[in-house]
Structures are given as structure tokens and as C-alpha cells.
Amino acid sequence: MRSTPHLLFRLFIAAALLACPGCGDPTRMFLHPASEFIATPEAMGAAFEDLRIPREDGGETRAWWIPLPEALGTVVIFGGNSGNRSHHLVYARIAREAGFSVLLVEYRGYGPDNGEPGVRELALDARAAVGWAGKRPGRVGVWGISLGTAVAIRAAAECPGDVDAICVEASYQLVPAMRNYMGYAMPDAVAAPLALLVRLFLIRSGTDPEPNLERRRAGVPVFFLQGDRDRVTKTFWAARMFERTPGPKALWLMEDTGHSPEPLRSADPEYAEQVGRFFRSALAGEPDPQACATWRAEKADGGWEIEASVVCEGPFPAPVEVVAVAEDEVARRRLWVEGPVTRVMLSTRGCPATVCARRYHRVALSGRSWTMDASFLTRSYRELNRLAESRREGTYQPRLLNVEVHPLLAAQYSVEMIENAGLAPDPETARRQLLRALEVAPPAAEAAWIVGDARYEKATVGTREMVLERCRAIFENSGWDTAPLEAKIRELEGR
Asked: For 449-467, what is each residue's pLDDT tens digit?
């Protein structure tokens, strides 16, 4: 174990480097902008304007204005940390298809020729964007993703007259998030106090999303979206924020889902349904029958017993999911609710942070039970995640040989098949799987609008050319006859 003086010395050096003259804005260490666009709203068939909105400091905020005739209102979208506005076009498409005009905001330092990034710039861009949107016809909602959750919440706090609804995906508590981020590069004994120092001395007041939630205008609803396996902005943080948030609020905790943009892929088409209903209800007054939960918990042998009262609006019966969140643990129950109030029991090993309930709209029935109605893309994506997890655990998955692959995930599947072949029980099975990987791989790196992803990208890693190169190397290094491989190539070329 390192001595206390040694840790204090490392902490001093880290803090000095952050604050030294000539280093620019030290908060830039937390930001990861991309300078090049990978698409514009034209890719989704939408007309748009490239705006330059004046900021209060004399600078300008860049944004894409995507108007919709006879829109129900405006949704202002604040994207995540990595990339730029072009990487978040799918969110704009969801809001537009729900009936809203969209203002897709670019932070300073993100996108081409747009200055230097910094935490202070985020607030200036947020106020400029929301102020501009507030002058448009109709009510305004803000939608933040990951880093953008804090930006959206701050905009609602500092421009309360302009924001009527808040939707946040992958929200976070500020100091734990910085500590988690720094923990990738330094021991936790250094990261924990350094995160606190950065918060106190380098990041200005008004940045922390939790107090900003309390500063929003009374009555403005907040919809928290979160994956139950998010290790970047941890699920437990969102649960605590939800529980502490006053006023109208809701939390939807998606099963077997990680950090953004995974919710888009793992819950299609329910994701767009939930977001669209929230904004249409909050901004246009459209009815959205929902469920919520009150709860109490008692310590029991080996854990906690939770009693939840689920209050649900009709019509009945209603498919409702009830979820309890403790640190590093989630317990959930799905049920058909038959009336306005239903009692539900759950248990967790750790002390629960919150309990939430959510009504589903796209469900598949199986007798008296139900599951979320998942698209082919979502089913494929969830299967891909399970296969990757099994491979990391060293478990071979024979169903890879016959799995049905969504075309947009074909490249990822082919790579996973190659990796999994090393776990095959015998050489013949491994060879068959490699040939199947070659068959699944897309012929070329064609650009594709990813329905359940936040990117417009070219899949290059798992293309047929690259898969063939890897397969040929494995065949040759293993001393296997390459004739079956060459025959498969001729078969594919003849199709």
C-alpha cells in the first residue's frame, strides 16, 4: 500500500498540472469533441438551417434547426461528450417523428472550426440555444444525452421561462462521475480527493445537475432514461437523482442496457414511443396514461424487503414494470395491472436508492405474461451482447452457427464469430464457424443510417475483405486445408 505522503504528493502534482498557466481551460480534460461531420439532417430526408445564434459573451452557438410544418412545439437536443451534433442525428429524427421541430445544438469546440471546448462554454451555448428556441411558436422541451443531461438541466434552471419539459438519458452526479472518470488513469485514493478539488476550484458553480433540478420552474416534468448496466454514468447515480428530484418526474430503467447510445439499440421501438409520448404529453397536452410507485423498505435477513404501491392510470389491464435500484443491483417485476393501485413486493441485497414503475406500450403477449416487443434490430443487438459476454467468460456459443443476423449488425456479428471460433470444441466446428463469419460479413463498407444507433458510419472492421484476411490467416496458421475457404469465396462471388 502506498504511503499517505506519497499519495498526497501525486495529488499535488495532478492538481498543479490541471491549474498551470498555459494549459488553457483545465476542464477540457473531460471533453472529447470530434471536428468532422459524418452526416447532416439531409441524411434523414429533412430540410434544415445551419444557425449561428449570438451568445451573451459576444460569441456564437452553432446549431441545426430542423423545422417541422405544424409542429407541436420545439425540442432542443444537447448531445453527449464524444463526437459532435452529426453523431446525434437519430435523436433529432425521433423528436421530429414525434411531431416536433428540432434544434440540434453544437457545443463550442465541437464540429469543424468551432474554437476551443470548455465547461464554461457549455452553459453559454445552452442559454443561447434555449433562448432562441423560446422565441419560436409553441412550448419548448430539452433533451440531454450523457454530458448533455447536465447541460439541459442547467438550461432549465437558468432559463426557467423557456423550458417546459426535461428529458435526460444517462444522467450523472458530478463528483462521483469525475471520480469515476479519473479512476481510469490513477488510483482511486488519488482520484477521489482530486475530483473534489476539481469540483471546488476549477468547475464553476451552476454546473452540478442535482441542485439545478431543484431550481427548475415548478411543475416542469423530468423524464429520466437509464440503462440498468450503465458503467459510465452509473445506474445508481440516476436512481439517487430521481429519488431526490422534487416535483413531477419519471424514471424508465431499461433492462440489459449500458451507456448511450445503447438504449436506442436495446429498446427499439419502445424507446421512441416512450420519448415521443413524454414530449407530446408535456408540451402538447396529449394524454399519456402512466404508472408511478411509492415505496418503503425494511432490513431483512440477507438484504432488504421492499413494498411498493403502484398507482396506474387506465385503461386496464396495463403492462407495467416495477424496478428497485440498489448500488450495483437491480430487481424488477413485470405484471399486468388490473386496477388503479397494486401492491408489489421486491427484494435487494443492498439498501435501495429508489423504486420506479413504468407503463409499456409496445409489448408481446405470452399467456398471462408480457415482454417488450423488440424489433429485429434490438433482438439482434441483445443477442450480440450476450454472445460477447459469453466469449469474455470463455464459454462457447454453438448457436452462432445458425443465428439470424440483422444486416446493420452483420459486420459486428462476423467479428464476434471469428473471436468465438477460438472457443470451439473441435477444429471442424471452428472451421464451420469461420466460414459462416465470412458468409455473414457485408460485402463492402457501405454507409448506413443506423436506426438504433447515434451514428452514421461505415462498418469497416467486419467487412468481407477484412474477414477473409483474418480467416485465411487462421486457416494457414492452423495448418488447415484452405480449399473449403476458397470454395466459400467463389460461392459468395457468384451470388
From this structure: 443 343 434 445 568 888 9
Cis omega (within 30 of 0) on the bond before 261? yes
Give the residue with greater pLDDT, 28 vs 157: 157
Say which range, 5-14, 339-348, 385-394, 478-487, has the weakest mean pLDDT: 5-14
**Cβ atoms of 380 and 400 closer than 8 Å:** no
Residue 262 C-alpha cell reads as 445503447
Among 45, 34, 128, CA closest to 87: 34
- What b/e sequence results for 23-33 when a residue is b if at least 16 CB atoms lie within 10 Å of its CB, and e otherwise? eeebbbbbbeb
CB 120 within 8 A of CB 153: no
In 3D space, the residue among 381, 491, 379 whose CA is nearest the CA of residue 436 turns out to be 491
Report the pLDDT value the prediction gives residue 185, as an integer from 0 to 100: 59
Residue 73: name the closest of 276, 279, 255 by CA: 279
0.70 surpassed by pTM: yes
Quick one: cell of 193? 480527493
Residue carrying the nine cell digits 411558436: 137
Cα 170–175–180 angle (5° rounding)?
70
Radius of gyration of the chain (CA): 25
- Cβ–Cβ under 8 Å, residues 253 and 271: no
Answer whether 171's CB lies under 8 Å from 241's CB. yes
Predicted pLDDT at 2:
44
| Average pLDDT in the chain | 86
Q: Which residue has the cell 447536465?
A: 150
Main-chain phi, psi angles of 329, to 5 degrees: -160, 140
pLDDT digits (tens, 9 = 90+) for 247-271: 999 999 999 898 888 898 889 899 9
Is residue 323 within 8 A of residue 295, CB to CB? The reply is no
